[in-house]
Design brief:
Strand order of the largest sheet: 3-2-1-4-5
Structural class: alpha/beta
Shape: globular
Radius of gyration: 15 Å
Number of strands: 5
Helix content: 40-55%
Order of helices and strands: EEEHEHEHHH
Largest sheet: 5 strands, mixed
């Protein structure tokens, strides 16, 4: 079984592949390329774990002390990610993939997103990575 973790984003989603219980690759894939890229595997052998940003409630409370322009920008960015996640979910299921929606991660798994060294300790990954790819990997592993 192959597990693909996806951290949705407007420009390019973070994507991680777990095979045989091991993290084997990290990618950034634009929306329009993702389905074609996934077609390299038999759909019946793939589980997609997709982060569901809509599972976060009260997301904007942390931004209430910032100015109005910052609050509007944050709300816009979050709305864009929510839309991408919803469309990815719909597209993947429509095309026959098994999809599990995963709440955004917390705690030690979430720490890996912003801390590449900690991510390396947790996963054993030695290659380059960015925050979206690391988040996708944690979604695939712990989601």
């Amino acid at each position: 079984m192959i597990t693909v973790g996806i951290d949705p984003d407007l420009k390019a989603s973070g994507v991680a592949v777990i095979a045989g219980g091991k993290l084997v690759s990290l990618h950034n894939k634009p929306f329009c390329e993702l389905l074609g890229w996934l077609s390299q595997w038999d759909k019946s052998a793939v589980l997609i774990k997709l982060e569901n940003p809509e599972a976060n409630k009260g997301l904007f409370a942390a931004h209430s002390n910032k100015n109005k322009a910052v609050s509007i920008r944050v709300a816009t960015n979050v709305g864009q990610v929510m839309a991408v996640a919803r469309l990815l979910h719909e597209m993947l299921e429509h095309n026959g993939y098994a999809v599990k929606l995963v709440s955004p991660l917390k705690g030690a798994a979430k720490k890996c997103k912003d801390d590449a060294e900690y991510f390396k300790k947790v996963t054993g990954w030695e290659g380059r990575s960015n925050a979206d790819q690391r988040d996708a990997a944690m979604i695939a592993i712990y989601g």
